[in-house]
Structures are given as C-alpha cells and as structure tokens.
Design brief:
globular; binds pyridoxal-5'-phosphate; about 40% helix; alpha/beta; Rossmann fold
Length: about 600
C-alpha cells in the first residue's frame, strides 16, 4: 500500500476521460469532466468507497484567446503537475503496437464534508523508458487524430485497471464507465477472468461475470460523442496476438468480434457487429454492462430509441451543491439551513429564507461577476440592469445565438419592457468550425447592438468563471436543439443560487421546469423526437422574445417580490434535487448495490 487512502477497501472504480477538480488543473474540457468532478465530491460527502481513474494531460485542453472579431485561437495550458498531484510508486504497462508503454499515476485526494477521502488517479505515460510518441499519449485532451484517441483509451481502460491492481485495489465490485471512452476497461476485466480460470481464451461465462461488474453512463445523443474506430486500428495497436491482453489465441479484432457477437450480447449489437468493420465503443460498453443509464429522463428515452434492444435507465445529472453555491449564498444557507452541505434535500427550506437576505446575497454574486467583467474587458456593467447569462461549449446544436436572431426585436424589447444585457462565455472545440462561427456571430451582434443591448463575451470559460456567471446573472438562458441536450448542468448551478432558467424543454429542464414557479420554457414540451428532426428556429426565437418581453422583464422591474419568489422556488425545488448528492444516491441504489 503506497498511501493511507489506498488502504481503505474500495468497491466502486469510476473511470472518466476527463475530471474537473480545480480551476488551474487542465484535466477537463467541459460538462462531462465537471460532472465527473462533482460526482466524486458527492461520493466523498456520502462516504462512498470509490476510487477514480483518468488521464493526465500535461498540455491540458487549451486556453482560449479571442481576437477583436471573435476569432478563437488556442494555446496550450501551462501547469506544474507536482503543484497539484502526488506521484505514486505503483507502475503498470500496456502494449501499444510493438512497444511496451510504462505507466505511472499521480494522486489527487478529494475530501468530503465529513472528512472521508476519495482518491483520483491520473495515468501518466511520460516516462523516460517510453518512446517519445508514447510519452505524448498523456499530452492533450481531445487533441490529435482518432488513432491517438484510441491509444489514449487503451491507456485509460486497460492501463487503468492494471494500475488499480498495482495500487492494491482488489475488492472492487463495480467499474463505472463515464461515457464510452473508458469502455476498453471491460476487455482487461475479461482477460482477468480468463487468466484466473487458467484459460488463454474468453468464454461466455467470462462475459457474464464482467457484465455483472460494469456500469455505463451514456452522455449524449450527438453521433460525434460516440467513439467509433475502424476495426483495423485495433490490429494496428495490437499487431501480435500474444500482445493483446496476454491471451494467446485471438487477434484483437477477432476477440472484439467474439465479444460483440456472443450469445450474451444484445441482438441489435450482435447484428451491428456482424458487419465488423467498425469498433463502436458505445456498443461495447452497452454489451458489457449490468446497468446502463442516460443522464435525464428524456435522454433515457432518446437513448432507448437509439439502441432499441438494450435496457437503458435514466439517472438525471446534478451538480455539487457546496461547490457551485456562491460564497454569499453559502453564508446565507449556513445561517438558516445549517445542514445543507451534508443534506442537500434540506435546501427545500429556502422557501422560508427572508426575501431581503436572498436579494442581498444575489446582489453580492452579481457584483462579483461584474468585477470579473471589468477585469476581463474593461467594461462597467450596470448592476441595476436585468442580466441574462449564457455559458457553455460553443457548438451548433446549443444555438448560443438563437436570442440574436432578430436584433431589431431585441432593441424594441429593451425599449418597451426594460433594459437588459447579456453575458456570454464558452470555448469551441479547435476543430469545430461551426462553433467558432457562432462566437464570431455573437461579436458581430454585440457591435451592431452597442448600447441598446450591451453584450459581453468573456474568454476562457472555466470552473471559476462558470461559478461566477451562473450565480451572478438574473436569468439563465438555454437554447439547445431538442433532443440533443441530454442533460445540461449549468442551469442547475444557477438554480442553487436562486437564478431561474428560461430554456427549451430538453434535458433536465423537462423535469425542473414549472412555468412561472422555477422559471420559464421556450416553446412547448415535445414527445421524444428522433435525433436529426428539424427544429423551427424562428418559432423558438419568437417564443423566447415574447416570454422575455411579456413576462420576465415586467416581473423583474415591476414585481420584484414575485421575482424573488421564483428565485426562492429555484433553490427549494431545483437546488434541493438537481445535485450530485441525490444523483450518487441513485447510482448507489440502482447501479452499485443492485
Ligand atoms: C457547468 C459547466 C459546464 C457544463 O455546463 P452545461 O450546461 O452542461 O453545458 C461546462 N463547462 C464549465 C466550465 C462548467 O462550469
């Protein structure tokens, strides 16, 4: 045992390509990583014996720079691993092409509210014994080509299981794959079963056993979010039969086909695998998991449509309440609802908070955000003015510019119903040209609207900025194209801070929305649509405008006490529920102990 934390018996291993733990640690790109970090924090709070595994990214995701016209450029992140993480003496290795790739890991310890610790291990291939190209495998997150990604996933999945063994974790009963990136862990578990039985090949009974240990959470209906590789990549990574998982009789591709076409696998997946040219990691994870879930109820339905033969449940995402509540609201809750950190459900009591204290806490959060705006842009935003927030990854389906569809209409609304301003943030993936266009479009609209509707775009969206924006605005806007949102979590952060949402009825908002009580909808609620069905952008923009003009701005400026009532209901109804404490409790009862 290399450290105190390792010596505790652990039952759940949580695998994620990205985990967001600290602002200055570039170990995440966005929502998936933020959710992973919040999950681990809640596990520590609940004293759940969990251990987490991810990859170390020495160059991180990227730092975002924006030119005058909104053009994005990316710079590597500078950070010193030793400042944040503790190196472990344990070593493991995987085989890639003809080479042995040695791995070490670095530990970060997450401490819960009662002092319970959950270790997070970051795998690192940057060792002198490795070839230069292999040392770079733990270099950038979502960088490089698709083959590089597969090699990273070999390190995460296969290397991850091996490093856990080297660290002495032998009591694990569940392996949770947070998205398909980690699916290759199931292959190492299969090989372990075969080796233990003294066999050099896998059998159906191994598949049954491994399936009993794996849990899979799928996070998006967007096709690009599901890893697929040409099957020949597997042969490239594992050219020699004997190098693949130490099983003697199978090439990697044959092995994979045998798993996917096994009697134990779901009929639809068997069929898909018969073609055999593509390695689909979502299908692998679906086949080898005892419990599969989507991340909101609607997303569960969409996922069942995508994979009709597989039983898919839903556990709606949450956020870590202690992390995403602004300092001013933390003080307020500590004073009136002292148990809220250990027991997030008690935030129901927010209905009893003195309204004037809620308003003062909100004004402090708003002031903090406007300070950040001033620091980043030199602009002085007016604290009296109604402020709309929109921050998330810039990509087509999230439609950050839907509210900018008709600038004349916006000018008119500001004149008739009351002034408002918009604060934006968000990175586009370096290869997402459409996402980069959206940022430029926002900059154009900002220029055109000038003082009529002040707009600011804050660069380099990260955890700190996320906290400030979600807590410091008066309204959280979300305009995804149904049904692609899956869950969304930033609106949950807003809710904890008494900030209501105006959103398309997709993802978590289908469950969190009560019209005029916790916020407002854009458009109508829909039945689950198949992915790819066209949306009426103009009609949705019109719905957004009419709610803003006819309902929300009048309420904010003329009926402040009713607006405050909505703020309190956001905390009491949504903050008390859409948190990772409730979410992890559901994973425990439905997936980990089941
Ligand atoms: C919360 C958060 C996200 C995820 O927000 P969504 O609403 O799910 O898109 C992404 N990035 C950062 C920095 C965040 O804080």
């Amino acid at each position: 045992m290399s450290s105190q934390v390792n010596s505790t018996k652990r039952i759940v291993a949580y695998f994620s390509m990205e985990i967001a733990l600290e602002n200055a640690m570039p170990s995440y790109s966005g929502g998936l990583g933020v959710l992973a970090g919040d999950t681990i924090r809640a596990a520590a709070d609940l004293r759940l014996p969990m251990v987490a595994v991810s990859l170390l990214y020495r160059r991180g995701y990227f730092t975002q720079r924006l030119a005058e016209d909104g053009s994005q450029t990316e710079e590597p992140v500078e950070w010193r691993v030793e400042d944040f993480l503790q190196e472990e003496p344990a070593r493991a290795s995987v085989s890639i092409e003809d080479r042995r790739v040695d791995l070490r890991c670095w530990r970060y310890t997450v401490k819960g509210v009662r002092g319970f610790e959950v270790p997070v291990y970051f795998l690192d291939a940057d060792l002198p014994s490795n070839a230069v190209s292999d040392r770079n495998l733990t270099g950038t997150l979502y960088g490089g080509d698709s083959y590089y990604r597969l090699c990273q996933e070999v390190v995460l999945g296969i290397g991850g299981v091996r490093i856990l063994r080297a660290l002495g974790y032998n009591d694990l009963t569940r392996y949770h794959m947070n998205e398909g990136h980690a699916a290759l862990l199931s292959l190492e578990l299969l090989a372990e079963e075969a080796r233990e039985a003294g066999r050099a090949s896998i059998r159906g009974e191994d598949i049954e056993k491994v399936r009993g240990k794996c849990v899979f959470t799928t996070h998006t209906p967007v096709p690009a979010g599901h890893d697929r590789f040409p099957m020949e990549y597997l042969t490239r990574v594992f050219p020699k039969q004997t190098e693949f998982l130490d099983l003697k009789d199978a090439s990697a591709a044959d092995f994979m086909k045998r798993v996917l076409q096994a009697e134990q696998t779901y009929p639809g997946i068997q069929e898909a695998a018969r073609g055999g040219a593509t390695l689909n990691l979502t299908q692998l994870a679906l086949s080898l998991s005892t419990y599969v879930n989507g991340v909101a109820k609607v997303h569960g339905e969409t996922s069942r449509q995508m994979f009709p033969h597989v039983p898919i449940e839903a556990i709606t995402n949450g956020v870590h309440a202690g992390t995403w509540t602004s300092p001013a609201f933390q003080q307020l809750f500590d004073r009136y609802i002292p148990s809220w950190r250990e027991d997030n459900y008690s935030l129901r009591g927010a209905l009893g908070l003195p309204a004037e204290d809620v308003w003062s806490a909100h004004l402090i959060a708003k002031h903090e955000l406007f300070e950040e705006v001033r620091k980043k842009t030199g602009l002085n935003f007016d604290g009296e003015v109604f402020t709309i927030g929109f921050a998330r990854r810039a990509t087509g389906y999230k439609r950050a510019d839907l509210i900018l569809a008709d600038l004349d209409r916006l000018r008119q609304i500001a004149k008739n119903a009351g002034a408002f301003q918009i604060i934006y943030a968000g990175k586009a993936h370096p290869n997402d040209g459409g996402g980069k266009d959206i940022i430029r479009h926002i900059f154009q609209a900002k220029k055109a609207l000038r003082k009529a509707v002040p707009i600011v775009f804050l660069d380099d969206y990260n955890l700190d900025l996320g906290g400030k924006i979600t807590s410091g605005v008066d309204l959280w806007l979300n305009t995804p194209q149904f049904p692609l949102e899956a869950s969304g979590t930033s609106g949950m952060k807003a809710a904890l801070n008494g900030v209501p949402s105006l959103s398309i009825l997709d993802g978590w908002w289908v469950e969190g929305h009560i019209e005029g009580v916790t916020g407002w909808s854009i458009g109508e609620s829909r039945r689950v649509a198949s992915v790819g069905v066209a949306t009426d952008n103009a009609a949705e923009a019109e719905s957004l405008y009419s709610k803003l003009e006819g309902v929300i701005l009048p309420l904010y400026y003329a009926e402040r006490s009713r607006f405050l009532g909505i703020m309190q209901h956001s905390i009491a109804i949504n903050g008390s529920f859409f948190n990772t404490q409730r979410m992890v409790q559901q994973y425990i009862t439905d997936a980990y102990l089941h």
